Amino acid sequence: MSAAAGSFGAGFAWAFRRDMRIAWRHPGETLLVIAFFIFVASLFPLGIGAEPELLRRIAPGVIWVCAVLAAFLSLPAMFATDYSDGSLEQMALSPHPMPGWVSGKILAHWVASGVPVIALSPLIGLQYGLTPDTLAVLAAALAIGTPVLSLLGAACTALALGARGGGVLLALLALPLFVPVLIFGAGAADAQASGLSPAPHLSLLGAGLIVAAVALPATVCLALRIALD
Amino acid sequence: MNRLEARSLACTRGFATLFHDLSFDVSAGEWLALRGANGSGKTTLLRCIAGLTRPDAGAIRWNGESTREAEGAFKADLLYSGHLPGIKDDFSAEENVRAALGLRGVAVSDHAIGEALAQVGLEKRRQLPARRLSAGQRRRIGLARLALDPARLWALDEPLTALDDEGQAFFTRLLERHVASGGVAVVATHHDLATAPSRVMRMGA
């Protein structure tokens, strides 16, 4: 009897199932992200006043900024507790190739923090008086853009892992990298609202997602190896 | 035939040279005890063996192959337990053992996990979240895992910390069984175990 040889898929499935189970045990963290997203997005109409035309114009940008901040809020949890209780060490020493379980963890993070934001975005958009087709484009842009946020965020948290003042460092690293996603994401819904085609923005977001999905897990692995040394 | 070889290992941390030109062999059926004062490099050596820390010089071979080049095969044989137990507070003892074995690709029945937990005295507490267990009981989760994992090479850092006499005796039996079945172990410890090490290496000497 000996331990089975590792594989990308087995490591991916193990990490995804485990992190989803932890998220399920600790719904507070996910609920906090959802509550943050809803509250902040609802504060704008209250602060700006009920001018339907103005609200409709700023809606895509405001909702995207809230989504970016919500994604940022959930980042530290991705590796920090596993790092401090030694689980990350055990994962790094498992026979599975590192990019497998790292990708599994990133996907779990997206399901717990990105998917609720996508699902709630039409509801928030209604508050701002967006039309149904703009709502659909907004949700589509979020669906393509939030995984990029999770991937970029994973690389930044892994780099900031174990550093003193990690929280500030994380903000300095992650927020500038989120800017292109924010611009193209908000741009897609903006274009739809002003009668243009959102396709170029969505295509660029999609291209960004492909590049991020291919390149970033390896970057995360490199950063984790440094953090564990 | 299992065999761990270290050749001319060197490691510096900051300005301190922890060890240099360190060579040793541990063959199947042997276990090596690492002794030495705090800060003498026991943990660093274990981390070098596991591959978490890269030594400044030297090579580590497992069954004749460099552990860096044949990483996958080496890791399938390796069980490393460091200062941090790798136990999730939110998971129960049972889930912790299952997750740890699942990560290593070891398929074990629920019945076997239950039996191992009973052996380490956690039968009644197997469903409790680990955060509600004492330090020694959390260590015992690690013992249950050690009992079920078929890894051929153990690299253990102070495995007896927080364990009571009974726990230490159980660990000793596990180590004897592991070594008798042709396993290899490198154990850093300040305690004298009931079973004598095949070799003792003094660090920092």
Helical amount of chain B: 25-40%
Mean pLDDT metric of chain A: 92
* Helix-and-strand structural type of chain B: alpha/beta
Strand content of chain B: 25-35%
Residues in helix, % of chain A: over 70%
Q: How large is the count of helical segments of chain A?
A: 9
**What is CATH's topology name of chain B?**
Rossmann fold
Strand order of the largest sheet of chain B: 6-7-8-3-9
**Number of helical stretches of at least 4 residues of chain B:** 6
Terminus-to-terminus distance of chain B: 31 Å
Provide the succession of SSEs of chain B: EEEHEEHEHHHEHEE
CATH architecture title of chain B: 3-Layer(aba) Sandwich
Helix/strand/pairing category of chain A: mainly alpha
Count of all domains of chain B: 1
As a whole number of angstroms, the C-alpha radius of gyration of chain B is: 17 Å
- Report the end-to-end length of chain A measured between terminal Cα atoms: 31 Å
General shape of chain A: elongated
- Counted up, domains of chain A total 1
Oligomer: heterodimer
**Proportion of residues in extended strands of chain A:** under 5%
CATH class of chain B: Alpha Beta
